[in-house]
Amino acid sequence: MCWSSVPLLRSSVHPPPAEPLDAVIISHNCLTPTEIEVLQKVADKGSVRRAAQALCRSETTLKRELAAIRQKLGARTTLQAVVWAVRQGIVR
């Protein structure tokens, strides 16, 4: 089988790049108070591990919460989500 004969398979392996967060208008109202608290702690502590300890949660739980936040915001990384929250004035 030749890869060039299966264009759909090749295109599904590498999804198209997502729009940058700055290009998308997202209301901070889409985040719950708990999600805002998580972003604030990650920004304050500088790492997921330290933020999890400060919030008395496991690192795995916090990573799961951050994945949901990234999905809501369309962010690829936690850093991108935190930077967006800082720029919006949600997090200091």
Task: Please provide a written account of the structure.
The protein starts with 6 loop residues before the first helix and ends in a 5-residue tail after the last helix. The chain is globular and about 25 Å long. The N terminus is likely disordered. The protein has one domain: Orthogonal Bundle (Arc Repressor Mutant, subunit A), CATH 1.10.10. It contains five helices and no strands.
Topology at a glance:
Elements: H1 7-13, H2 33-45, H3 48-54, H4 59-73, H5 78-87
Summarize the structure.
This protein has 92 residues and is mainly α.
CATH superfamily: Winged helix-like DNA-binding domain superfamily/Winged helix DNA-binding domain
Could you give a short account of the major beta sheet? Answer: none
**CATH architecture label:** Orthogonal Bundle
CATH top level assignment:
Mainly Alpha
Q: What is the straight-line distance between the termini?
A: 54 Å
Number of helices: 5
Short key terms for the protein model shown above:
92 residues; mainly alpha; disordered N terminus
